[in-house]
Specification:
221 residues; alpha/beta; eight-stranded mixed β-sheet; 15% strand
Length: 221
């Protein structure tokens, strides 16, 4: 594991056995998807939202939060606690902040357009939060890590608010002020192909590809 530098705002380690919540982030305007709610699309015969809720339930033992701003969001999954952004209009970083504030325990966040996230990965992120303020899996994406499939502790709140005050909306902008653990790509590969597990649905073509990938994976088991 690679540890980032510890800033002055970092908190001490979490107590062993502390509750870790899950949060599904349904933010974003989905401009490349015609503005439609991406997580309500079906992959492998099941809505992405429902699949993620089931994964988080199995991994963490309780229903996740649903962070969503759409007026109709509470009806998407009435059994989930649905909360809007505490500070609207701030993109992915605003969604992470909302999850940290509303959890308020350590929380594992997953974007709602990632249909292949697995139970073992969620559990690993949750388990590692007892020693770090943020835990992110390494990937070959543009950031090199996956901030929208990651774990965040309470110390992230103040660090994120400092970034927002400075006008820095990058999803990783606050990392230099907290203790960060990056799960190496080789460790992530122990759960699944990173290209699959971090696949996200941004376009209609992505949706078709995700459905095809799911069915091929199911038929090979």
């Amino acid at each position: 594991m690679n540890e980032g530098r510890r800033g002055s705002g970092a908190a001490g380690p979490q107590d062993g056995g502390q509750l870790v919540r899950g949060a599904i982030l349904a933010g974003g305007r989905a401009t490349r998807f015609g503005g439609k709610p991406k997580g309500l699309e079906v992959v492998g015969g099941e809505r992405i939202l429902d699949r993620l809720a089931a994964v988080m339930m199995e991994a963490l033992g309780e229903p996740p939060l649903l962070v969503a701003n759409a007026p109709e969001a509470a009806g998407w999954r009435p059994d989930l606690e649905t909360v809007p952004d505490v500070r609207p209009g701030l993109g992915a970083l605003g969604g992470i902040l909302t999850a940290v504030v509303r959890a308020p325990a350590p929380v594992v966040c997953v974007a709602w357009d990632m249909p292949f996230v697995s139970v073992p990965l969620i559990r690993l992120l949750a388990d590692t939060l007892d020693r770090y303020d943020a835990v992110l899996p390494e990937s070959e994406g543009r950031r090199g890590v996956e901030p929208l499939c990651a774990g965040y502790g309470p110390a992230c709140r103040g660090a994120i608010e400092e970034s927002l005050a400075a006008g820095d909306l990058r999803a990783i902008s606050f990392h230099d002020r907290i203790r960060v653990c990056i799960l190496p790509l080789e460790q992530v590969q122990g759960f699944a192909d990173p290209d699959l597990i971090f696949f996200n649905v941004n376009t209609a073509d992505d949706l078709n590809k995700a459905d095809d990938l799911w069915r091929r994976r199911a038929s090979s088991r």
